[in-house]
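ok trying this again, last paste got cut off
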Amino acid sequence: MNKPIRILLLENSPTDAEMIEYELSKSGLEITLRRVEDKGGFERALSEFDPDLILSDYNLPRFSGISALATAVIDAPDTPFIFVSGAIGEDMAIDTLKGGATDYVLKSQLSRLPPSVQRALEESDGRRARRHAEAALKRSLERIQTILDQTVQALASVTEIRDPYTAGHQQRVSRLAKALAVEFGLPRDLVEGLRVAATLHDIGKIAVPAEILTKPSMLDDIEFGLVKEHSRVGYEILKGIDFPWPVAKIVLQHHERIDGSGYPRGLKGNQIMPESRILAVADVVEAMASHRPYRAAYGVEAALQEIRRGRGHVYDSEVSDACVRLFTERGYSL
């Protein structure tokens, strides 16, 4: 059984209030009506009565309908508000609608009130249903994002378990790549894709023997050749995952260089994705600044010197400049 419609009526004339109630009841609407005449009564009724609908005269001796509308817009924004007035011109009526009113009905035309009330309540129910659906969709998307992040972290941990000497490398590169992307001006939707790719950029090292990854001396040509395969292997691992961004391709290209001296395909300049150009710089800076099994850390300043030296021919000029700014002017720290 449906509950009666709770209607708050701002009206100083008991006779007019009776006419309004009669017109609504005559139409078959089951209502509970509370009449108030002033600001205090109106504000108390908004919180205590919790109306489904507000009806208001335009001119009252102690409170104006426009003031009531302004209060309702703030305190009860989802509650339909209909003016029922004996004196309201076309300009005034338009102003009420611009101010947030749902409709206006002249007291001389009260037969219009029941359909106006029904339409307002249906629209209100529709807005409420859409809002609930949007909230449910938002929760679902947040859960999907959480699962994606957890999956990415799980994949990234596989590499770090096999290569404990570079534990944290992918996370630090991911944070630096994201900061670089923002400084560089990469569109926001692409920044998130870069963050994910950077977190997974070394996943292909799962195919590299552990003794090579942890070797405490420089690698020979054959060993280095095996290591160089990690970007291609990473691509093969990731290409089957339907990410919203080209994560696999970013990983494939993160060792390419502007002058074509990189690997695995020797791409040049704009053949390399912007995300991969950013990741390349972030990867080099973090690697040089950190300890490796075969050498001590060079430090951030040496890493920045390398980026400056390679600007424009090894590394993208704009990315190089953004990286130097990030550390020297923005105070970024690994």
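PB: full thing came through this time. Residues 5-132 form a domain with the Rossmann fold fold (CATH 3.40.50.2300).
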